[in-house]
Amino acid sequence: MSGDDPLELLRGRRSRPSLAAPAPDPDELHDLLVAASAVPDHGRLRPWRFVVIEGPALVPLGDSFAAAHAERSPDATPAELARTRTKALRAPMVVAVVATPHEHPKVPMWEQRAAAVCAAHGLVLAAHLRGFGAMWRTGWYGHAPKVRAHLGLYDGEEVTGWIYLGTPAGPVPSPRPDAEPSVTWLG
Ligand SMILES: Cc1cc2nc3c(=O)[nH]c(=O)nc-3n(C[C@H](O)[C@H](O)[C@H](O)COP(=O)(O)O)c2cc1C
C-alpha cells in the first residue's frame, strides 16, 4: 500500500467482508502481530494472545461453531447448523484475539480488556497497511464452551474478536463519508 499521508491510509481503511487467498504467510503474519501488539498497555501486562486458524484448520473451527449452535438450540435445523459452520470459512485465515485479564493491584480488569481491544484493532490496521483485507467479527459462539474448548481457552480468557484476514476480494467498499467527530473543547 502506498501513500504519502499516513492519515490518508488510516482514513481509507474499510472492513472487507470478502476475503480470498492468500492470507499472510507466517513471516508476514508475525510482522502484523508484532505491530498489533504495540498498543497502549497499562503495566505492560500484555493481557492478550492470538490464536491463528488457517486453511484446513478452519473446518474443525466451523464444526465447533455448529456443535455450539446445536447445544444452544437443540431444534436448529441442519440448514441452520450448516450456515453457522460456514461462518468460519469466510476467509483463508481467522485470528482469534483473546483477552487474558487477571486481577491486578493497579490495573483494573477493564483496562486489560481495553488493551486487548486495542490489539485487535491494531491487527486490523496492520493488515490494512500491508495491503491485506481484514474484518473484525464477533458472535455468541465466541463464548460457547465447545468453541472455547476448541480454541484451548483457559478460565477467564475471552474472545475479544475474530479477525478475518486475507486478500481483499469482491467489490471495493464505497469510501466512508467523512463524519465530523464529536468534539468538545473546554476553555
Ligand atoms: C467489537 C466489534 C465487533 C464486531 N462484530 C461484527 C460482527 O459480528 N459482524 C459484522 O458484520 N460486523 C461486526 N463488526 C463491525 C465490522 O468490523 C465493521 O467495522 C463494520 O462492518 C463497518 O465497516 P468499516 O470498518 O469499513 O467501517 C464489529 C466491530 C467491532 C468493533
Give an account of the 3D structure:
With 187 residues, this protein is α+β, with helices and mostly antiparallel strands. It has a domain at 16-54 and 92-168: NADH Oxidase (3-Layer(aba) Sandwich), CATH 3.40.109. It contains six helices and five strands. The chain has helices at residues 6-11, 26-36, 58-72, 78-85, 109-129, 145-151; strands at 19-20, 48-54, 93-99, 133-137, 158-168. Strands 1, 2, 3, 4 and 5 form a five-stranded antiparallel β-sheet that branches. The longest helix has 21 residues, at 109-129. The model has no long low-confidence stretch (mean pLDDT 96). The structure holds flavin mononucleotide. Flavin mononucleotide binds next to strand 4. The site of flavin mononucleotide has 10 residues, from strand 4.
Which properties best describe this structure?
187 residues; alpha+beta; NADH Oxidase; 6 helices; 5 strands; 36% helix; binds flavin mononucleotide
Would you summarize the structure shown here?
The protein has 187 residues and is α+β, with helices and mostly antiparallel strands.
SSE blueprint and pairings:
Layout: H1 6-11, E1 19-20, H2 26-36, E2 48-54, H3 58-72, H4 78-85, E3 93-99, H5 109-129, E4 133-137, H6 145-151, E5 158-168
Antiparallel strand pairs: 1-5, 2-3, 3-5, 4-5
Helix pairs in contact: 2-5, 3-4, 3-6
Flavin mononucleotide (FMN) binds at residues 14-15, 135-139, 161, 173, 176.
